[in-house]
Amino acid sequence: MQTLPNPTQTQSPSSPAVSTTIERRKTRPVPVGNITIGGGHPVVVQSMINEDTLDIEGSIAAIRRLHEIGCEIVRVTVPSLAHAKALAEIKQKLKDTYQPVPLVADVHHNGMKIALEVAQHVDKVRINPGLYVFEKPKTDRTEYTEAEFAEIGEKIRETLEPLVISLRDQGKSMRIGVNHGSLAERMLFTYGDTPEGMVESALEFIRICESLDFYNLVISLKASRVPVMLAAYRLMVKRMDELGMSYPLHLGVTEAGDGEYGRIKSTAGIGTLLADGIGDTIRVSLTEAPEKEIPVCYSILQALGLRKTMVEYVACPSCGRTLFNLEEVLHKVREATNHLTGLDIAVMGCIVNGPGEMADADYGYVGRQPGYISLYRGKEEIKKVPEDQGVEELINLIKADGRWVDP
Ligand code: SF4
C-alpha cells in the first residue's frame, strides 16, 4: 500500500483547517415517543415489521425483536380500521410486558378514518401525500384547470385537518412521506415525474400543517433510484432553507432489493446525504427480514462517524510485505475484542507502512518481522511479542490500560 502524504503535515500555517467531522444540518426536534428526531440528536434508526397488525401477539414479538437489537422506532402498516384498533392493544401490551416502544403507523389510501383512530394509539402517523386523498386518474385528461387544482387542494385540507389537530393536541408527530412511485396525478401533470414534483407535494402538506400550528413534522422523499432520491432530498433542503423551514428528514431508498447490492444501493443513497449533513433518521429497506436492516443502518452511521455502536477496525488489505495471515488474525482480534464498543483497533501487515496508516487507532497489531508482531498504543510502539501470543498480549495491554470490560 502506498503511503500518502498526510495533508495536515503539508498544510501551511495560514491555510484554514479542513474539518473531518460531518456538520449536520440544523433541524427542529420532533418527538416520537421517548425518542427525538432532529434537533441535534443522534441519527435515529428505524425499520418496519412485516406482520399483519391483526396478529397482535406476532406483532408484539416482531416489534420487540427489532427494538432489542437497536431499532429505535418501529413502523407498522394499518390498512383498515380494525388494524388501527389493534394498535391500542399492541401498544398497551408492549408497555405492560416489555417497555414502551416508539411506534409509527403507515396510513395509505383514503385513510382519514384509519389515521384518526390510529393517531390515538401510536406516536407518529406516516401519510403519503400521493395517496392520502386519492384522485382517480382520468385517462383522457389533457390539462388540470386552476379550479380543479384548487378543488383538490381544498379536499386535501378538509381531510388532513382533523388528523393534524388530533396529533397537534396530543403532542404527537407526522411523517409526510412522499414516494417517487406514487405521486398524485395533479403533481405529475404540473411537474412531471420529477424531484420538483416530489418536493412540491411535500410542501403542499407542510403548508396545511403550518396553517394549523402543527410543526412536529418529519419529511421523506424516497425513490428506488439513488440519483432521483439524492436530487429530491437536496432540492427539499434548498427549498426549506429558502422558506425558513427546518424539518428533520427521514432518509431511505425504496425497493433497494436484497443481498449485497441492496445494501450498497441503500448506502449510496443514505450515506451520500448523511455525509453532506442531511438526514435525521434512516431506514434501510431490504427484501429480507427487517432484523437484517439494523446492522446496515448502524454500519453506515459508524462508517461516517455519526454514531459509535461497535469497535472500529482498521485493517490493511495485505500485500507482498504482509508478515502473517491477515484475514485469520483480524478474525481472531475481532472475536476477542468486538464487545469493546468505542475502541478503534488496527491490524496491519507490516511495520513499513502499518503504523503510519493505522490512522488514529487506539491500539495497533502490526507485523514486525517473521514470527513477531508489535503492539501499539496510539502511535507508540509498546512491545514486540511472538506472533502466537499476539492476541493475548493485545488483551493484556487493553486490560493494563483499564479499557477492558468482560464480554
Ligand atoms: S502489509 Fe499492509 S500495511 Fe504493509 S505495505 Fe502491505 S498493505 Fe500496506
From TrEMBL:
Amino acids binding [4Fe-4S] cluster: C316, C319, C350, E357
Protein name: 4-hydroxy-3-methylbut-2-en-1-yl diphosphate synthase (ferredoxin)
Low complexity bias: start-end ranges: 1-21
Enzyme Commission numbers on file: 1.17.7.1
Keywords per UniProt: 4Fe-4S, Iron, Iron-sulfur, Isoprene biosynthesis, Metal-binding, Oxidoreductase
Highest taxon of the lineage: Bacteria
NCBIfam families: ispG_gcpE, PRK00366.1
Reactions it catalyzes: (2E)-4-hydroxy-3-methylbut-2-enyl diphosphate + 2 oxidized [2Fe-2S]-[ferredoxin] + H2O = 2-C-methyl-D-erythritol 2,4-cyclic diphosphate + 2 reduced [2Fe-2S]-[ferredoxin] + H(+)
Swiss-Prot/TrEMBL cofactor(s): [4Fe-4S] cluster
Domain IspG C-terminal: 312-399
One function term, GO molecular function aspect: 4-hydroxy-3-methylbut-2-en-1-yl diphosphate synthase activity (ferredoxin)
Keyword Metal-binding assigned: yes
InterPro entries to which the protein is assigned, alphabetical: Dihydropteroate_synth-like_sf, IspG_bac, IspG_bac-typ, IspG_C, IspG_TIM, NO2/SO3_Rdtase_4Fe4S_sf
Pfam families per UniProt: GcpE, GcpE_C
Cofactor binding, note field: Binds 1 [4Fe-4S] cluster.
SUPFAM superfamilies, alphabetized: Nitrite and sulphite reductase 4Fe-4S domain-like (SSF56014)
Function: Converts 2C-methyl-D-erythritol 2,4-cyclodiphosphate (ME-2,4cPP) into 1-hydroxy-2-methyl-2-(E)-butenyl 4-diphosphate.
Region entry Disordered, spans: 1-32
IspG TIM-barrel domain residues: 27-298
The protein's annotated pathway: Isoprenoid biosynthesis; isopentenyl diphosphate biosynthesis via DXP pathway; isopentenyl diphosphate from 1-deoxy-D-xylulose 5-phosphate: step 5/6
Family from the record: Belongs to the IspG family.
